[in-house]
Design brief:
By secondary structure, the chain is α/β, with parallel strands linked by helices. 48% of the residues lie in helices and 17% in strands. It has a 4-stranded parallel β-sheet, with helices on both faces. α1 packs parallel to α5 and α2 crosses α3. Homodimer. The dihydroxyacetone kinase complex is composed of a homodimer of DhaM, a homodimer of DhaK and the subunit DhaL.
Length: 127
């Protein structure tokens, strides 16, 4: 099973740095880490359509695990789901966990199991 760890923050620098750290420590080719921090023009902020575009461009068998940090990034993660079709929504897991710790633990767990509930539970425990 393919898994996509989506990182959302107001800052692209934050998500790029976190992606780099996770990629250095998680080598499973079935786990993709995606940095979607900031806005499409490189500014501070968050855009739900960046998430939607990534999902629409992904294969139909990918499970998506979304991690966000604060305020409107969390809202963007929530809003993105509204733009997805029903089959995509079933594969969209908006995780209530700290961005850094949750995404890291979620990605490492996703590298060793296909159990969606275990991935989510382990990420949430990272609080």
């Amino acid at each position: 099973m393919k898994k996509s760890i989506i990182l959302l923050s107001h800052s692209r620098k934050i998500t790029d740095g976190l992606k780099e750290m996770i990629d250095d420590m998680q080598q499973n080719e079935d786990v993709e880490v995606v940095s979607l921090g900031g806005t499409s023009d490189g500014g501070l902020g968050s855009e739900p359509l960046l998430v939607v575009d990534h999902i629409n461009q992904s294969a139909e068998d990918v499970e998506f695990f979304i991690f966000s940090d604060i305020g409107s990034a969390v809202l963007s993660a929530d809003m993105a789901m509204d733009f997805l079709d029903e089959s995509q929504q079933l594969r969209y897991h908006n995780i209530d966990a700290p961005l850094v710790e949750g995404a890291f633990v979620g990605a490492i767990t996703a590298g060793v199991t296909d159990d969606i509930n275990q991935i989510i539970d382990e990420a949430r425990k990272a609080k």
